[in-house]
Amino acid sequence: MNLTGKELAAAIHTRLKETTSKPTIVFELEEGSAGILQCKIGGAFFVPEGMEVPKNTETGEALYLLAQINFEELPPMEDIPQKGLLQIFIDGKDDLYGCDLDNKANQKGWCIRFIENLPSAEEMKPEQIQETEWTEETSLPLERQTVYRLTGRREDQPVSINDYRFDKLLAKYCSDLLPEGVEGFFDLDDEDAEACEEMYELFEEYDCQIGGYPTFTQTDPREFMNDEEDAPDILLFQLDTAEDIMWGDSGVGNFFIKREDLIKKDFSKVWYNWDCC
User: Fold this and answer.
1) Euclidean distance between CA atoms 220 and 274, whole angstroms
2) Angstrom distances, CA of residue 232 to CA of 113, 236, 251
C-alpha cells in the first residue's frame, strides 16, 4: 500500500486498534469532596483496626495518600478484584516521592494496602479516619488539600506510542502499510513526519486509568528488562499531571503489576515509576 501522511496514520491506528486493544478503566477527575471509602485522589483515608498510618520504613515518616480505588465502584473488568479498597501511599518528604529508581518494587518509601472487607459507615470508628499532616517540608505531586473524586468508565485502548512493545506490534501488524525500511516509530518519523504527528493525535492517552497502556514523558522502564516475561504487564494505576497535580516538571506516575499477582490480590511486587520532562 502506498499511503502517506494522515491516511497512513489512520490506517495504522485502525489496524492496531483492531489487534492490540486492551480493556481500560478511564477515570474522570472531579475536584471536591469524596467519601472516605470512595475512589479518589488525596485526602483522608481509612486505617483498619489494628493497623497504623503507613510509614517510610527507614525514616519513620508518615506517608501520604496518593490515591485509592474502591473496586465495587468500578465497571466490570477481567482480573481486577470485584470488591475491596486499594490504597496507594507515597513519601512527601523525599524529592522522588518515595520511588526507588533502582528497585521499583521496593516499598520502603511508598506502599500499597489492599483492604478486602470494608466496614459500613456505622461500624467505622472516628480514630480509623486519618490524614497525614502537611508541614513546610512536605513535597508531593498534589497541592495541599487536593482531593478529586474519581469516576470510572470502560474503554478499549490500543497500544500507546511510548509503550515498550509499540515498535514490535507495529512491525507485526502493520508491515504491509509501512514504507520500505521502516521498522519502528522513529524510523517512520524520518520518512513521514506528517504521519507521525497525526499518530500522536490518534493514539489516545488518558490522564488517569487502570488497565490499557501507559504513557511516559521519558521511556518505558520495562524496555530495559532482560526477559520480557519478568515485566509487570498490567497497568494497575496511572496518574498524569493535570490541574493541581504535578509530577516534577509535568510528569506522570505509573504503578504496574503482573497479571498472576493481580488475580491473587498480591500487591507486594508492584512497580512504582514516575518520570518528567
Assistant:
1) 10
2) 18, 10, 21
Share of the chain above pLDDT 90, in %: 87
Nearest to 9 by CA among 218, 202, 151: 202
274 strand-pairing partners: 253
H helices within the chain, ranges in order? 5-20, 166-174, 185-191, 193-202, 259-264
Place of cell 479518589: 40
Classify residue 138 by burial, with Cβ atoms within 10 Å: 0-12, 13-18, 19+. middle
Could you tell me which of 108, 114, 103 has the C-alpha nearest to residue 93? 108
CB 253 within 8 A of CB 268: no
> Coil, strand or helix: which one is 95?
coil
Q: Are 97 and 90 in contact (CB under 8 A)?
A: yes
Give the pLDDT confidence of 74-128 residue by residue, as tens digits.
999 999 999 999 999 999 999 999 999 999 999 999 999 999 999 987 899 999 9
User: What is the pLDDT, as a whole number, of residue 74?
Assistant: 97
Q: Which three cell numbers stand for residue 81?
A: 478484584
Q: Which of 212, 209, 185 is nearest to 196 (CA)?
A: 185
| Among candidate residues 137, 138, 157, the one with its CA nearest the CA of residue 146 | 138
pLDDT digits (tens, 9 = 90+) for 137-180: 999 999 988 999 999 999 999 999 999 999 999 999 999 999 98
CA–CA distance, 97 with 89 (Å, rounded to integer): 10
Beta strands in 62-179 (DSSP E): 64-70, 85-90, 110-115, 129-130, 148-157
**In the block, residue with C-alpha cell 465495587:** 72
